[in-house]
Amino acid sequence: MAERTPHQNTTFEVDGGTAHGYLAVPSSGSGPGVIVIQEWWGLTDHIKDVADRLAAEGFVALAPDLYGGWITHDGDEAGEMMSQLPAEEGAAALAGATQFLLDNPAVSSETLGTIGFCMGGGFVLALAAQQGSTISAAIPFYGVGQGVPRSYAGIQGAVQGHYGKHDEMYPVEKAEETERQLQQESGAEAQFYYYDAGHAFHNDENLLGTYDAELAKLAWDRSVSFLREKVV
Asked: Which keywords are on file for this protein (predicted)?
């Protein structure tokens, strides 16, 4: 059953209203900005841990709460929650998160990066298309759902994708089609990596039983190096 968790430590404006999120700042007090986009489970401890891990690498990481505090560990319920989030509502929240980070004095970069998983991987591409040159690095992990844009023409930043060859939710043929379409429509630098793994291989909460520690580390190291190179 879905549960509502307390909102975490920051708020930002969205279309005249207020949204919530989890903000992780490096010990130095400043660093390049990165938006972390949740899976269909909600803003879980795993996603907060991703933000904390980015902060440990020197980034200021914001994970917006797209479900308003609701989380679940049930796959059917997660699918229902994802389906009830309109793409335009998610896009508006991410636009607000983008402006919040750009205005945050802890953020030292002129551009932002974004990384997301599952549903969040789809919204990573939507955010990059929406924000143009503001997003200099976009990293979708096995992106699915309503956030996946129909057109990638607006993407100007570099894209690094991470997809499983045995992903039953987003078959590798679909991921390869996405990579080709992105390269053709945007002209942006884009490279997808394909792993001998299933969906959510990076999620160490292992809710789907597909977590692969070795491949997760490889994908993570590639992602951090990419963010360091592109987000300035």
From this structure: Hydrolase
